[in-house]
Design brief:
The complex is a heterodimer of chains A (317) and B (46). Chain A is of the alpha/beta class and 317 residues long. Chain A folds into two domains: 154 residues, D-Maltodextrin-Binding Protein, domain 2, CATH 3.40.190.10; 117 residues, 3-Layer(aba) Sandwich (D-Maltodextrin-Binding Protein, domain 2). In chain A, 37% of the residues lie in helices and 17% in strands. In chain A, the strands form three sheets. In chain A, strands 1, 4, 5, 7, 8, 9 and 11 form a seven-stranded mixed sheet that branches. By secondary structure, chain B is mostly helical. Chain B has one domain. Chain B is 83% helix and 0% strand. Chain B is built from two helices and no strands. Classes of the chains: A alpha/beta (317), B mainly alpha (46). Chains A and B meet through helix 1, strand 5 and strand 8 of A and helix 1 and helix 2 of B.
Chain lengths: 317, 46
């Protein structure tokens, strides 16, 4: 009788232990990794916008004085998170201070400076809510969205940047070749040991459709990017733009990988030895009639505008 | 402990356990959709 009772208690304890261990495993392997370090603004907007306000007393933007300020119908400016420091610096140089209105953590509707990140900025250009978007190349869907609404987008290259691949700093892999990357994103290589790393599945992480970096990845490796079923139990491979990784997220827990043996620093972007260097653009509507739009583009491509791009940390044309 | 009570206890413990796992998975999925790629990489276990 006592033996039976002992077995029954043991069985109940066994079930309880199994459930608790499963919960702890899920928490530490998955849940804990999804809890952000960063502020609520960084989580919501991918960038601390209020640290880069053009006319604030304390701001991180590059301040370049320019002889001519815009007057009249001021083009509305918007763009990608990673380019906020750039286009906010442009605004400081050529827009009147009164044109930027920022209240309660956001720009007001009548402000000439807006921030809705890449997807919002492209939509804004097509819908007429903004006039110039500073972004990476648009996705096919974004181009199509414009066509459907009878809007053709004009892309003016304004600077260059490296597209980088990132891993946790403890991942022993420091370098990948373009062929290895292609095989990883096509699902042919699924374990880090096949590229000289630990025996762990490769977790191919992706971003939202339409984001600048996701579009760049798809243009490089196609739309059919294959994930690994066991990936979430392994080690992740992510991607972004160099400046965003280096300057806007300085936690130091991730590292950028060399590509074909070349590290994505500024010098290697400049001399184009890093294999994936892409332009970023000022996107406008074709046939734009507001003369101030062209004035902004002229400024961005002027020596002062290009100096801003360099001083922020990107690479000028 | 009679068999009925034992089965009842096992059933209760299992149901509570499964509910806790499902809740944790739902919370994880909600958090995952909000988290940035960089945070996800930074907190990877090595």
């Amino acid at each position: 009788m006592k033996k039976k009772l002992f077995k029954q208690i043991l069985a109940i304890l066994g079930v309880v232990t199994f459930m608790v261990v499963t919960d702890i495993f899920i928490f530490f392997v998955f849940t804990n990794r999804c809890i952000n370090y960063s502020s609520s603004q960084m989580q919501a907007k991918s960038v601390e916008v209020d640290q880069y306000l053009p006319f604030a007393k304390e701001t991180k933007i590059v301040k370049k004085e320019y002889s001519e300020k815009l007057t009249g119908d001021l083009p509305k400016i918007d763009g990608a998170a990673a380019l906020v420091p750039v286009f906010n610096s442009f605004v400081y140089s050529i827009y009147p201070e009164s044109s930027v209105k920022y209240e309660n953590g956001d720009f007001t509707k009548d402000s000439a400076l807006q921030y809705h990140n890449t997807r919002g900025a492209f939509k804004g250009i097509v819908d007429g809510d903004c006039d110039i978007a500073f972004c990476a190349k648009p996705s096919n869907d974004q181009v199509q969205y414009g066509k459907d609404k009878g809007v053709e987008l004009e892309l003016t290259p304004i600077g260059r940047e490296a597209f980088v691949f990132i891993v946790n700093k403890n991942n022993p892999v420091d370098n990948l070749t373009m062929d290895q990357l292609k095989d990883i994103y096509n699902g042919k290589i699924t374990n880090w040991k096949d590229v000289g790393g630990a025996n762990r599945p490769i977790n191919v992480v992706q971003r939202n459709q339409g984001s600048g970096s996701q579009t760049t990845l798809e243009k490089l490796f196609g739309n059919e990017i294959k994930g690994n079923f066991f990936g979430p139990l392994g080690a992740s491979l992510g991607f972004s733009f160099r400046y965003y990784v280096e300057e806007l997220t300085k936690h130091g827990h991730i590292k950028m990988l060399k590509l074909n043996g070349v590290y994505p620093d500024r010098e290697n972007v400049q001399n184009e030895s890093y294999p994936i260097v892409s332009n970023f653009f000022a996107v406008t509507r074709k046939g734009e009639t507001n003369p101030n739009v062209q004035k902004v583009l002229d400024f961005v491509l002027s020596p002062t505008g290009q100096e801003i791009i360099d001083e922020v940390g990107y690479v000028s044309l | 402990m009679n068999d009925k009570l034992f089965k009842l206890l096992i059933a209760i413990v299992s149901i509570v356990g499964v509910i806790s796992i499902i809740t944790l998975l739902i919370v994880t999925i909600v958090l995952y959709r909000q988290t940035s790629m960089i945070t996800f990489l930074e907190k990877e276990l090595w």
